[in-house]
Amino acid sequence: MRIAIDAMGGDFAPREIVQGAVAAAKKYDCEIVLIGDEKQIRAELHGEDAAALRISVVHASEVIGMNEHPAEAVRTKKDSSIVVATRLVREGSCDAVFSAGSTGAAVAAAQLILHRIRGVGRPAIATPMPTPDGVTLMLDSGANVDSRPEHLVQSAVMGSLYAQHVFGIERPRVGLLNIGEEETKGNEQAKETYPLLKAEHNINFCGNAEGRDVPKGNFDVVICDGFVGNVVLKFAEGLAKTILGLIREEIRGAGLMAKLGALLLMPTLRRLGKRLDVREYGGAPLLGVNGCCVIGHGSSDAKSVASAIGVTVDYVNGKVLDQIRDALAKKGDSDRA
Amino acid sequence: MRIAIDAMGGDFAPREIVQGAVAAAKKYDCEIVLIGDEKQIRAELHGEDAAALRISVVHASEVIGMNEHPAEAVRTKKDSSIVVATRLVREGSCDAVFSAGSTGAAVAAAQLILHRIRGVGRPAIATPMPTPDGVTLMLDSGANVDSRPEHLVQSAVMGSLYAQHVFGIERPRVGLLNIGEEETKGNEQAKETYPLLKAEHNINFCGNAEGRDVPKGNFDVVICDGFVGNVVLKFAEGLAKTILGLIREEIRGAGLMAKLGALLLMPTLRRLGKRLDVREYGGAPLLGVNGCCVIGHGSSDAKSVASAIGVTVDYVNGKVLDQIRDALAKKGDSDRA
Fold first, then answer.
1. Most A CBs within 10 Å, among B183, B228, B252, to test the A interface
2. Strand extents, DSSP E, B212-335
3. Which of A80, A104, A207, B59 is buried most, with the most CB atoms less than 10 Å from its CB?
4. Testing the interface with A: which of B146, B185, B235 to mutate, by most A Cβ within 10 A?
5. What is the end-to-end Cα distance of chain B in Å, rounded?
6. B165 with B319: CB under 8 angstroms?
7. From the CA atom positions of chain A, what is the Rg in Å?
8. Shortest distance, CA A5 to any CA of chain B (angstroms)
9. Cβ separation A262–B262 shorter than 8 A
10. B144, B147, B151, B157: CA torsion to nearest 10
């Protein structure tokens, strides 16, 4: 398996990306292709114990910045790292692409270069949200907004197949993110989507999920519009950071006994942090395009990158793409019939 | 000041409601009117040290349950506690109403009995979300969905006036909840609302707020559709509960040293919990109706009820209603001109 890594994408690129890729090459059974400024990448690799690893470099002279218009930048910067990396997947020389750069650019590159799977109106980003017993897959978490009900149903089918073949959950519990449990609750989008999900035989639809069900893990897959998903995802990140900051602040201002307590409790708090750390997952698959594409957080460090590459390896091994192609092509045929 | 309390609303009514009301009557300069089943309320009062307090009881023979259709129930159950309580405000015998019962019923009663303020298309629930330095007021958090851009602008004006006159913030920073900082980002609703907020001279509009800005406290007032706000609010509640549960679980499974650490750190963790506890605020004002109406969480205990009554007292004292009436009537006139 060969994975194309956008070495220039992310706040700490290329250093943390290269370090994460090296860690992943040691840990997972995969070959890594780093795409970006060859000189910079080689300089980073030089400092790593990487000579014996299956890592190669493909030069790309341009970078798409966080504030560029995604589709426009993908069209004009033909030699940007994300475009070249995505093209390697298109050409079949790599099995997947990972980028921690501009999410918009990664989505645009995937759409324009890999194209959508037949039967998919809009691709969706499926973010694994930590729960006490594992994760809830929330999609779409920001690829598209103002999605039509049929797009949400396609997301549900894709998310369910991902949970099944990558997480190994036999009949993933699929929920529709809504503001009440009853079928009649919600905005127009949710009210129109509910009966479609109920009628969809490809999934195990378990009704509406409320906001609280996401962190509690009451569903394996939660479906929502990309606007709502993105707000929730960023809210969760902000809240986690805020709580950690407050804990530090309270301990700093506390007495000696409390400081001793914090010290003794540290391994426990660390273990808890690990259970809640999005970096343990690090990457979110973009479902619905003809190729495995995984998106990382802009602030990804080496650890997040390594675990995101782990997500990518699992994604490829799960052969989810074939499953999605099958299910949605058949669904499209039967919907038209 | 007299406050009407729906004594039958909430998961732990009437006990926790009555206990909270007693605590509030001791703490705040207000008279309390408890509305509901007189026998039950008197029985609860009997156990409390309430004889010297300014607490009276108004009998109401019916209760609106959590699963009833709000508007229908309000129309048919004329003698339900929330309807009678809201009517006391309408008649001028009380200055405000508080309920921890069905949010839908409280909103419907307020709309049908108190009516909307002229210039307000849709009322909005303004929930104070805890931040490191205080709160961010998030509205609408669930009164309405699929709001039009002008409704969000009205919410912005109302939320800003509330933050100014109740929280004492001179020029509240108002943000539009969105999925990116740039003006061009977002769904249709957000893209149409942005320029209207920018042009609104009644507020200090500071641009788009992302999900992470809410817990970080980067804005004083964050405006969103009730669908998004409700999902975020319930997500926050669920996450907070999940984290607390995990801390307990980790400590239970930890070694003796960690247990000792937890013990020593307990006062610090409690202080932190207090800073993040929504119960410290307990109540969310429903803005946009002709009367002060405050809504509490269904799971409110006596502590939440007492602090929600504190919110209600502040709301009345802030004379926000007059401010809102003035601003929106003038705005309506100038919008029409």
1. B228
2. 221-223, 283-287, 292-296
3. A80
4. B235
5. 38
6. yes
7. 20
8. 25
9. no
10. 60
Do B55 and B22 form a contact (C-beta atoms < 8 A)?
A: yes
Q: A273 and chain B: CB distance < 8 Å anywhere?
A: no
By Cβ distance, the residue of A211, A213, A275 closest to B232 is A211
Nearest of B268, B278, B270, B271 to residue B303 by alpha carbon = B278
> Rounded distance, CA B110 to CA B94, Å?
14
Cβ(A177)–Cβ(A228) under 8 Å? Answer: yes
Between CA B144 and CA A161 the distance in angstroms is: 34
Residues facing B284 on adjacent strands: B295
Between CA B82 and CA A251 the distance in angstroms is: 44
User: Averaging pLDDT over each range in A50-54, B76-80, B280-284, which range is the top one?
Assistant: B76-80
CB A6 within 8 A of CB A99: yes
Residue A242 Cα distances to A131, B132, B276, angstroms: 18, 7, 10
Structure tokens, B151 = 């409704």
- Half-sphere exposure (Cβ direction) of A44: Cα atoms closer than 13 Å: 24
Report CA-CA distances (Å) from B159 to A165, B111, B140: 47, 18, 9
Inter-chain residue contact B258 with A238, CB threshold 8 Å = no
Paired with A139 in beta bridges are A223
Amino acid identity at B290: N
Give B177→chain A minimum CA distance, Å.
8
The whole-angstrom separation of Cα B99 and Cα B85 is 9
Helix axes B256-276, A256-276, angle to 10 degrees: 80
State pLDDT tens for residues A120-167. Answer: 999 999 999 989 888 999 999 999 999 999 999 999 999 999 999 999
Chain B residues touching A269 at Cβ < 8 A:
250
Rounded Cα distance, A262 and B205, in Å: 41
Q: What is the pLDDT of residue A50?
A: 80
pLDDT band at residue A277, thresholds of 50, 70 and 90?
low
Compute the 3-state secondary structure of chain B and give helix, strand, coil in percent, each to the nearest 5: 50, 20, 30
Nearest to A171 by CA among A219, A119, A217: A219
Q: What DSSP string describes B61-73?
A: -B---TTS-HHHH
In degrees, rounded to 5, the angle at the alpha carbon of residue A156 between the alpha carbons of residues A10 and A171 is 110
Q: What is the pLDDT of residue B25?
A: 95
Q: What is the pLDDT of residue B279?
A: 57
Q: Cα(B87)–Cα(B109) distance, rounded to whole angstroms?
A: 9
B270 touches chain A (CB under 8 A): no
